[in-house]
Write a structure and sequence with these properties.
This protein has 537 residues and is α+β, with helices and mostly antiparallel strands. Helices cover 34% and strands 20% of the residues. It is built from 18 helices and 18 strands. The radius of gyration is 30 Å and the shape is elongated.
Length: 537
């Protein structure tokens, strides 16, 4: 009777265990156990609550080589077939390894786990582990970043907020970013199209709220899939928007003009500078790309992007004041944002008169596109600089910032930037009804101590709507080539400016900016000093 009772109890225990295994999807030949390689992480969402990064339970396939009873060669082929592997050899090597425990593959699908479980091989182990997934794949990848197999952030916000995302008390509270997935998609899409069309090696783009510093979109190409970060090239992982530094050319002329207005160097739009011939400085000669060969007024220097005129204005500003302005605009320190991937400005070691002149039009100084976006936000928002942020600013959370330009200088520069788009080098940046303003910038890339005429960086720094600026939009292409459509030209007006136009046309309705055919900046006070251009109205 005691034997019968023990036998009955044993059968009951086995029955309960079988029931448990049937519910958990495990078996005696494929043990499933909870492991903690990847610590639980809070989700990352965009400003509207859309998932950008989340954690889910996945399977990992491992093997105890000494416990394998089947033919390793046959078993390897079966596993390779289930996992869609082109070769069974790596799997065979793991099955026959001398170690006690070997991973075959992390993150396998539930259907694959079920098929492997059905093989019935005692040496195989299916583990449950938490995996980080990025449901939008490439979208905002350089902002979000990615984790390694141990669940530690390696880049982007995953790295910058590792402690916050893994804090047990914060796991149920998603990290809210300033990024708008809809705006981000528009920027990435248009940059990718332009990069392909102009055979560029890379690109970057930024959309920033000029009053809060919130970054609604930040893109870097080539694209990165954070779900497969270990399988992409270093070039794709590199963040061109916040880490890469470039000479951004004539986009700096807007900052120089703002400095000149507040320094008292420019007191009237009627002031003229001699641009009849190149400017000789020792053994260096400063030229205009499209010389007018005459004296130019302030609006003409800006809208025709005259290096000669801008350099003379910078001479009057002086090196000390120029450096102080650039420091106040954040250029003399790494780009200010939450990411760890931040570039530091490269500027002249000897900042003399010649350096002052070349820096005024964006040569001899290399900055990140993010530096430029923050500076342009200050230039058009009334003159207040604020650090960029990738975190959503909650109601009333905007700091005071610091005043860099006067309100009067900011108002003047809004008109001048609008003038570039309506009458100058940035005409292709116009987006019907949205009153775009901005400045083109084309610069040759340094190469071995010299400039390479065949490798250019083209940038358009813009804002809209210029009668009441709300957003700055930056588009940069790295080494674009001329096309039949651009008549072989590679300048920013031909490739970067159209990107800004298309981005604004797509994002303005999403951001609640209404088009208008009647509202605009009054350009008559500036057109009055442009030869051959008559004021309207």
């Amino acid at each position: 009777m005691i034997g019968i009772m023990l036998f009955t109890a044993l059968v009951g225990i086995i029955g309960l265990r079988l029931g448990e295994l049937s519910l958990t999807g495990s078996s005696a030949v494929a043990a499933t156990r909870q492991i903690a390689f990847a610590p639980p992480r809070a989700d990352i969402v965009d400003r509207n609550g859309a998932d950008l990064a989340t954690t889910f339970d996945a399977f990992a396939l491992a093997v105890r080589p000494h416990a394998v009873v089947g033919d390793p060669e046959v078993l390897a082929r079966r596993i390779a077939n289930i996992l869609g592997r082109p070769s069974a050899l790596p799997i065979y090597k793991e099955l026959t390894h001398h170690g006690k425990y070997r991973y075959i593959q992390r993150r396998i699908l539930p259907a694959e786990a079920k098929a492997i479980n059905a093989i019935g091989e005692p040496g195989l182990v299916l583990e449950r582990e938490q995996e980080r997934i990025y449901p939008n794949q490439f979208l905002a990848a350089h902002v979000i970043g990615y984790t390694n197999v141990d669940g530690v952030g390696q880049a982007g916000m995953e790295r910058a907020y590792q402690d916050r995302l893994t804090d047990p008390e914060m796991r149920d509270k998603p990290l809210e970013l300033a990024i708008d997935a809809r705006v981000q998609h528009a920027v990435e899409s248009e940059l990718q199209t332009a990069m392909t069309k102009h055979s560029a090696i890379g690109a970057s783009g930024i959309v920033m709220d000029v009053h809060t510093g919130e970054v609604l979109a930040l893109a870097s190409l080539p694209e990165l899939n954070p779900n497969k970060a270990g399988a992409v090239s270093p070039d794709a992982i590199f963040n061109r928007a916040t880490l890469g530094v470039y000479e951004l050319g004539s986009t700096f002329k807007a900052l120089t003009m703002g400095m000149a207005l507040d320094s008292g160097v420019i007191t009237s739009m009627s002031q003229q500078y001699d641009a009849t011939h190149p400017l000789q400085m020792g053994r260096f000669r400063i030229r205009d790309d499209h010389p007018k060969a005459r004296w130019l007024t302030i609006p003409e220097i800006f809208m025709y992007s005259s290096n000669i005129g801008t350099a003379q204005i910078a001479q009057q500003i002086g090196s000390a004041r120029q450096q102080e302005f650039l420091k106040e605009l954040g250029f003399m320190a790494p780009a200010e944002i939450e990411l760890k991937e931040r570039g530091r400005t490269l500027y002249p070691a000897q900042w003399g008169e010649l350096a002052t002149m070349t820096v005024s039009y964006g040569h001899g100084i290399a900055v990140t596109p993010l530096h430029l976006a923050s500076a342009y936000a200050a230039l058009v928002n009334g003159g207040v600089w604020r650090p960029a942020t990738l975190l959503k600013v909650q109601g009333g959370g905007v700091g005071k910032g610091r005043r860099v330009f006067s309100e009067e200088a900011s108002r003047t520069m809004r008109a001048m930037l609008r003038l570039v788009v309506t009458h100058g080098t940035g005409k292709q940046a116009e987006a019907q009804g949205y009153r775009v303003g901005g400045k083109t910038g084309t610069a040759e890339k340094p190469d071995g101590g010299r400039y390479n005429r065949n490798a250019m960086v083209t940038t358009f720094a813009g804002a809209f709507p210029m009668d009441d600026p709300k957003y700055v939009v930056i588009a940069m292409l790295d080494e674009p080539k001329g096309t039949k459509e651009t008549y072989g030209f590679r300048g920013a007006g031909w490739n970067s400016a159209p990107v800004v136009s298309k981005v604004i046309s797509r994002i303005a309705p999403v951001l609640g900016v209404a088009p208008s055919d009647v509202r605009d900046v009054d350009l008559n006070p500036y057109l009055a000093y442009v030869q051959g251009k008559q004021p309207t109205g």
